[in-house]
Amino acid sequence: MCGIVGVVSNAPVNQLIYDALLLLQHRGQDAAGIVTQQDQKFFMHKAKGMVRDVFRTRNMRALPGPLGLGQVRYPTAGNAFSEEEAQPFYVNAPFGLVLVHNGNLTNAQALKQEMSSTDHRHINTESDSEVLLNVLAHELEKTTRGLPLMHQDVFDAVKRVHHRVKGSYAVIAMIAGHGLLAFRDPYGIRPLCYGLGPNGAIMVASESVALEGTGYAFQRDLAPGEALYVALDGSVHHAQCAQKASLHPCIFEYVYLARPDSTMDGISVYQARLNLGESLAKRVISTVPPQDIDVVIPIPESSRPSATQLAHLLGKPYREGFVKNRYVGRTFIMPGQGVRKRSVRQKLNVIKSEFAGRNVLLVDDSIVRGTTSKEIVMMARDAGAKKVYLASAAPPVRYPNVYGIDMPTSAELVAFDRSVEEVREIIGCDALIYQDVEGMKKAILAAQQSDSSPIDGFDASCFDGLYVTGDIAPEDIARLGQSRVNGDENAADNSRLSLPNFKDE
């Protein structure tokens, strides 16, 4: 999962892209990069780390020009520890191309072999984004055949990309001396929208909050399979480049990943989470009598809207029982010390008065591995809670995500091949209440604005095991699991409980 942004303007864009990346920081904290264009020349700076750490004044001064794009990265494939895999990626032919990508290609290995044996292009990293860039470059070279570039050539190249590439991808690219290109996969799994700024400037970004937070007026989401091309003269061109397109956005964006102040494919993320709380309240009532609940407490951060609505419908007080430590840094390995795994207790502190002598209902947005949930339940008990109930605004996560969200392999998922009661015993709570899949889909769909493009369905594969691209078999899941990025105990801790509160402030 990553955040991407691109701008075409008549003024320098380096500060604007930096500001937009700060607004998208919640989508990736591993690396950040910006590339700008001036006089057909690209200027790039990228490195591991968060936006505020990667870019200093000297770096910003070295990024001139009225066109640019940027990315914040959370790696789900490839090498998380390689500076070379930070984006943007660049190739010099045809024309000169730079690209940023959010998503995950499910046929990256096959494409990489084709690149070498058939297209005679070299891939130098393990990143599927570099594969995608080279596919685009190859198809753009074929469509132009050495002739001047026309916008229809760009769209023909994107059509060929759609034909070859499988998986999820939202892409922004710059073509040196020509303009900016953005396109979305034929299922619209990963989000992408655009807006207008002063003097005809255009911004494309992963979430609407990046537009609105930088003074750009949101226009609309790109349709699945659609390509947007903005030429240097300011002319804007659109085309549907997929033979078959259907809108199936990733449902986990609304459950957890996106900022609550964003609107994606016409759905208010905040309203979707309120609706999830309302739907969850009905499940709670059928499992735990409301009179047995004294207080409702969210597990920071994304569960707050759902917990607020749930508490209101149950007629129970809503309280903040956990305080998040926003400045937890990395774990250092000193001489003579072993690797020390960071505890949840270093990331959250308990307000004991909210737990002592009470039956508490904890609300989380989702439960993935279950290790964090188990420790939080123990923290509530240690603080004096009589009973600890746990409710998840999302259904059990039973299957890996292959479309660009850092979802573990099946063996790491606490709900995989287990009943709810078995999961409850592992976590150690007195009752465990999950949202159901259909209830989740209805709740989120109900948050869509009436004038928006109709949604054909959701990619809810991590909950229901149905992969919308239709090309995922068990052996593919195993192969993608092997290429998944593994953590490093000595690396920065980028789990959601250790991050600053980007989402809800």
Write the layout of secondary structure elements.
Layout: E1 2-8, H1 14-23, E2 31-38, E3 41-48, H2 51-54, H3 57-61, E4 67-73, E5 89-91, E6 97-105, H4 108-117, H5 128-144, H6 151-164, E7 167-175, E8 179-184, E9 193-196, E10 202-205, H7 208-212, E11 217-221, E12 226-231, E13 236-240, H8 252-257, E14 263-264, E15 267-268, H9 269-287, E16 295-298, H10 304-314, E17 322-324, E18 348-350, E19 359-364, H11 371-382, E20 387-392, H12 420-427, E21 431-434, H13 437-445, H14 461-464, H15 474-482
Parallel strand pairs: 16-19, 19-20, 20-21
Antiparallel strand pairs: 1-4, 1-10, 2-3, 2-4, 5-6, 6-7, 7-8, 8-12, 9-10, 9-11, 12-13, 14-15, 17-18
Helix pairs in contact: 4-5, 5-6, 9-10, 9-13
What can you see in these coordinates?
The chain is an alpha+beta fold and 505 residues long. It has 2 domains: 2-246, Aminohydrolase, N-terminal nucleophile (Ntn) domain (Glutamine Phosphoribosylpyrophosphate, subunit 1, domain 1, 4-Layer Sandwich); 264-326 and 343-453, Rossmann fold (3-Layer(aba) Sandwich), CATH 3.40.50.2020. The chain is built from 15 helices and 21 strands. It has helices at 14-23, 51-54, 57-61, 108-117, 128-144, 151-164, 208-212, 252-257, 269-287, 304-314, 371-382, 420-427, 437-445, 461-464, 474-482, and strands at 2-8, 31-38, 41-48, 67-73, 89-91, 97-105, 167-175, 179-184, 193-196, 202-205, 217-221, 226-231, 236-240, 263-264, 267-268, 295-298, 322-324, 348-350, 359-364, 387-392, 431-434. It has a 7-stranded antiparallel sheet. A 6-stranded antiparallel sheet has the order 5-6-7-8-12-13, covered by helices on one side. A hairpin with a 5-residue loop joins strand 9 (193-196) and strand 10. Helix 4 crosses helix 5 (128-144) and helix 9 (269-287) packs antiparallel against helix 13 (437-445). Residues 486-505 have low confidence and may be disordered.
